[in-house]
């Protein structure tokens, strides 16, 4: 598939792409499921720009890539309509609205002496983040189990990868990516042993090594953390949390544990991709320039993956080695997302916050309500707690 090749598509004006993708960027509350639904409604149902089957292939193809899948789908659909100019305009229009909010709100939430109601809202919303992480992991389980297969050995490996990812999120912090890569490569090796020799040769590809993080803080370290989020976070979304938390809080001391919870909550309640959390971390590290630098490095990888890889998506999807890698890395990612709830919960500082966490879990799992409602409700409870004198920071 390539912009201008493959099935014929209408030539859509860049102004139309900017308007429509910008509208989704402004109204896309609820994370990747909402983004995908809005893009499908626009491109397939309302405008008929892209056939339904091709749109589904685009979802599958972008899920093969590391980084934020819904952002890459937005870039891919715009690229499909107008090639490179469409990808740049559509991707920017999708990302910028949430980025503006993610760049402005930290001035309130991360200020040295914010108003009491702001501190309460941040502490309340941050309290719910651990429950939101588990909820996000749970939503990924059915498709991953189906991908793994029905055999007892395949199910056993799936569960092992899941546990390995969860343990890595709790114990390894940013080095968790090594476990994700190892799980993927382990599944490649297992499946290659049972493949025909010709297929086995195709499956013996390797991944690039993970670079060491800079030893000291500063813009270089910030750029590395942001790049790692955008280029190495298989599964996108919440898997960025364990990858960032250790670096942002413990290694470089850009923010406290409570402030990191606030950053994750901001990434959830603002429209657009969850990966915009990295812009809040960048703001905490180096102000507005740091937020812009972090966003640039985090999202540049998505643009490059789509623009350079788009013509090869069909071949990648059909490659046995690629499929095997994601069969192994997928459950490790899910485990890592769920495991991130442990350090997130441990970062809570007051007893009332654990009560909010329990209520958020009941809202998400018992009442089966949405993530945005959970975070807004938790923020409201935090304001109430602050007003009655509970500690909020």
From TrEMBL:
Keywords: Cell membrane, Membrane, Transmembrane, Transmembrane helix. It is a multi-pass membrane protein. It is found in: Cell membrane. It comes from the Bacteria. The chain crosses the membrane at residues 87-109, 116-138, 158-184, 205-227, 280-308, 320-338, 344-364, 371-389. Belongs to the chromate ion transporter (CHR) (TC 2.A.51) family. NCBIfam families: 2A51 (TIGR00937). This is Chromate transporter.
